[in-house]
Amino acid sequence: MSIIDYLIMGFIFGGIGTSIGGLISVLIYKPSDKLISGILSFAAGIMLSVTSFDLMPKAYEIGGFFIVTLGLAIGLIIVFFAKDMIPVDKLKQYKGKKLSYIKMSLIIIISLSLHNFPEGVAVGSSYVYSNNLGIKIGILIAAHDIPEGISVGVPLIMAGVSPVMVIIITLLTGVPTAMGAVFGALVGGISDYFIAFCLSAAASSMLYVSANELIPEANILYKGKSSSLMLLLGFMCGCYISFGF
Questions:
Q1: Which end of the chain is more exposed for a tag (fewer CB within 10 A), N or C?
Q2: What is the pLDDT at residue 233?
């Protein structure tokens, strides 16, 4: 396979799941505060579970305490810088709550990008080793990206972004996976420390998004028990993603 082939393969596997999630967000016509609260809680539960049982254990296993600690710190710094670099002055059409939803979605996209790059590396490097293994990992990644696409799409819908643009944006979250696939195919036996660093940086940013963006906003929108139930359901689905496949 050529570099272009790896790029296309990574983009398809990385973008198809998130774009399906974006489409689901679009199909939820004029969602109520209760429904939005539940979806945000569900997305937070997914992120917390994947962070706890997938990203962090794998990072510690292959990188050790120092690399993981460094990745956690750098991941949080990246999110802080990203928040400050959001061009608020160029988002004049979004005000009040709509602007906060745009910011939330952008931060989620950044955290997913940190997560998706090493996923792409896994696809590319495994495909070099075995075609069947690479395709299997790619399909699993695509399935696991659907709820992540919902977590990006719902805030965009709430901000008033057009359905077509929501689909395009969620599809473009597959770009880091495509880049990772090319990188993995070229390097092959890439340093485990680099992979561990990427995974822990992604874990840090996901923890921030869950604890500081999704869960607080869900509680503001609706304070009933359904939000907590959806958080637990998302956590259980994340466990299935990590252990059930």
A1: C
A2: 92
Rounded to whole angstroms, the Cα distance separating 36 from 34 reads 6
The full set of domain ranges for the chain reads 3-239
Phi first, then psi, for residue 79 (nearest 5°) are -65, -45
d(CA 164, CA 183): 30
Per residue in 112-132, pLDDT (tens digit) is: 777 677 777 767 766 665 666
Residue 215: pLDDT over 80: yes
How do residues 87-99 score in pLDDT, each as one tens digit?
Answer: 656 566 666 677 7
Residue 102's closest CA among 43, 29, 169, 15? 169
- CB within 8 A of 177, min separation 6: which ones? 10, 11, 13, 14, 15, 116, 117, 119, 120, 123, 141
Separation between Cα atoms, residue 228 and residue 139, nearest integer Å: 30
- 186 CB neighbour count, 10 Å cutoff: 13
Spatial neighbors of 91 by CB under 8 A, at least 6 apart, are 99, 102
CA 121, chain centre distance (Å) = 15
The answer to whether the beta carbons of residues 183 and 3 sit under 8 Å apart is no
- Sign of the Cα torsion 141, 147, 151, 157 reads positive
CA–CA distance, 35 with 245 (Å, rounded to integer)? 28
Spatial neighbors of 109 by CB under 8 A, at least 6 apart, are 152, 169, 173
With residues binned 3-state (H G I as helix, E B as strand, rest as coil), the percentages for the chain, rounded to 5, are 85, 0, 15
Q: Which two tokens stand for residue 230?
A: 């959806």
